[in-house]
Request: fold
Amino acid sequence: MQYQPTLESVSQHPVPTWFHNAKLGIFIHWGLYSVPAWAPNSGDLGEVIESGNWADWFTVNAYAEWYANTYRIPGSPTQQHHFATYGHGHAYRDFVGPFNEGAEQWDPGSWADLFKEVGARYVVLTTKHHDGFLLWPSRTPNPYLEGYHARRDLCGELAQAVRGRGLTMAYYYSGGVDWTFTPQVIRSRMDLRAACPQSPEYVAYADAHWRELVDRYETAILWNDIGWPRHHNTNQLFADYYNAMPDGLVNNRFGQIFDSSGASLLAPVHHDFTTPEYQQYDSIQEKKWESCRGIGASFGYNRQEGVDQYLSAEALIHSFIDIVSKNGNLLINVGPTADGRIPPMQAERLRSLGAWLADNGEAIFDSRPWRTAEGSTDGGVDVRFTTRDGDLYAILMDSPGSREFTINGLVAAPNARATVLADGTEAALNQTEQGLAFRTDSPLDGAPAHALRISPAPEPAAS
Reply:
């Protein structure tokens, strides 16, 4: 199909199969903010969104990647830290030299090896965050700050390493905020509207960057953030992108705007998938979605964070299973240090997820949502369902506490068989009025979750 630069035309673009199948992506926030690597431990954004209490968020922002904004808010913990550590005369752009020096030590292959090991299918790198610093030597350099980019081609080198290991490469770009064009200090959600550059100069600049990321690096996703200039023809950008890369995707953040009440809205801008941040839906969504979050409360590396701020391995695995059962992907973030090292605790959490997937990935990858996402056992253990190739996968989110248990409300075919994915053993089945009873050879314990394949897929009991 040849796409035309109209909303009607680009809206016909289907979500490509690879994205439905992928389930797990790695987000990477790496930039100048990785040098100070500091933010207060004030809780994660999901808690703020749920409570609706935005009053102090930007002053005590837990996102280390927002350092360039937060250190300019008078009296903020980040400003106090900055003055105490670097002095009053140290500007944010003074981090360019230390970052480029640190990046000389970076080994992209080590990152790609880790991402492959944990089972991720795609990678999304922040090419430009709100501070405007570019992670590649662009053909369209920043007009206000000379040399305001990475010395190495971090975008290209990572793409080569990632694709060399069979993973898909994509890029993030902050289209809606760039403090080098509009140095608006953001103290509230409504400040975001004023912070979005609207000049023809910026429109041409941002458009040129996305087109360079497509033409030069063949990004698999246009992963935009915090909106886009009002007077830019996004449909032209999307049509050109889809015509060049039919299996590419566009996220929903080209259309982010904020009204006078501070509520997040979507303008009539095309998108292939939605992107809840530090949140996830509580039911199966018809439209594809992707939940993004850090392992801790920050995307960028925050040296303040420790075990109390990081997700446990069990919580990470449970969240991922729940997301997949409801038609979502998980884009889990790592925040490397300035010299390109992934912090050990972040790598450990990823490896724990990878170890679980090594045994149970059949229930996750290439799967689709079933008729319902959630269930339970007779002992009250939560269950999540996925389906693939005519089979049903039931994933118990805890140990059932016995070799015998029943998943409520399932009606199996007469010839149904059940297999424990972790060890390949067959579980005996018995249909009861309550549901489908299982008896396993050995107890299901020692793991955060336990997946069973039921062939062919049962039917849900009539309600």
Observations:
- The CA atoms of residues 34 and 337 lie 6 Å apart.
- The longest helix spans residues 344-360.
- The chain has 13 helices and 19 strands.
